[in-house]
Amino acid sequence: MILTMAFRNRQSLIQWMQTPGTIPNCPPGLEYLTQINQLLVCQRFDLLEVLGCFATSKKYEVMNNQGHRIYYAEERSNCFLRYLCGPSRRFTMTIYDNVGRDVITMHRTLRSSCCWRNCYVQKLLSLDEEIVLGKISKKWAGFMRELFTNADKFGIQFPLNLDVKIKALMLGASFLIDYMYFEHWP
Q1: What is the mean pLDDT of the chain?
Q2: Which of 171, 153, 149, 154 is nearest to 162 (CA)?
Q3: Model pTM score
Q4: pLDDT value of position 120
Q5: How far apart (Å, rounded) are the C-alpha atoms in residues 136 and 40?
Q6: Distance CA 79, CA 116 (A)
Q7: For residue 133, is it within any domain?
Q8: Each residue of 85-98: pLDDT tens digit?
Q9: What is the pLDDT of residues 34-55, one digit of tens each?
Q10: What letter would DSSP give residue 105?
Q11: Position 84 pLDDT exceeds 70
Q12: Euclidean distance between CA atoms 176 and 172, whole angstroms
C-alpha cells in the first residue's frame, strides 16, 4: 500500500517535455529529438531486484538536460531467459512517448559468449573515422544506487542538427551498451 502511494506520488511529479508540433520528413514520435542535443537515460530499479529475489524486466526513463521526460522504455522478455541467459538474453525494447504511443521498437537476439562462433558482430564506424557523431557515457548514479542496485544512468550527447534517425540509433545503442557491459546475472 505504501509503495503504491509512493509510486503514484512520483508519477504525479514527473514532467514530460512539451510535445513539439508536426515536423515535415520526421518520423512520428521523433519530433522531440529535433530540439535537443543530449539525453539522459536512467534505468529504474525494482525493489524485488534490489532484494535479490527476482530478475525483472528493465524499464528506463529518457529525459532531456532539464530533467523533463521525453520517452519511457520498457523491456519485454521471458522470465526464464532472464535467469538462464542473463545479459545475453533476447528481448524487445519498446520506447513510448508521453501519450503511450510506440515510437521505437528494438529487437535483440540471443547472444552467446562463445568464441568459436561469430558472436560479436556489433560495429559502428564512420567512413573517414574522423567525424564524431556523438558520445555515450555511463554516469555515476550515486554511492547507494551503485552499491545496491543494477540501475544505471547514461548520458548521450550529439550535435543538435544530427538526423533524428541517428539520434534514435544512439538511444538504442545506449540500451545495448547497458546490457553488454553493465548488466549482471540475477
Answers
A1: 77
A2: 171
A3: 0.76
A4: 40
A5: 10
A6: 28
A7: yes
A8: 777 888 899 999 98
A9: 999 999 999 887 666 656 656 6
A10: E
A11: yes
A12: 7
Of 147 and 71, more confident:
71
Residue 49 and residue 150 in contact, taking contact as beta carbons nearer than 8 Å: yes
Q: Residues near 72 by Cβ (< 8 Å), separated by ≥ 6?
A: 59, 60, 61, 62, 95, 96
Per the listing, cell 555515450 goes with 136
By residue count, the chain amounts to 186
Three cell numbers written together for 88: 545475453
Would residue 87 count as lying in a domain? yes
Question: With DSSP H G I counted as helix, E B as strand and the rest as coil, what are the percentages for the chain, rounded to 5?
Answer: 30, 25, 45
Strands 135-139 and 102-108: unpaired
Q: Is 39 exposed, middle or buried (0-12, 13-18, 19+ CB in 10 A)?
A: buried
Residue 154 CA to residue 183 CA, distance in Å, equals: 13
Domain count, the chain: 1
Do the domain assignments include residue 33?
yes
Q: Which residues partner with 44 through β-bridges?
A: 59
d(CA 101, CA 105): 11
- How far apart (Å, rounded) are the C-alpha atoms in residues 64 and 156? 10
**Which residue bears the cell 559502428?**
124
In a domain, 163, yes or no: yes
Return the C-alpha cell found at 166. Answer: 541517428
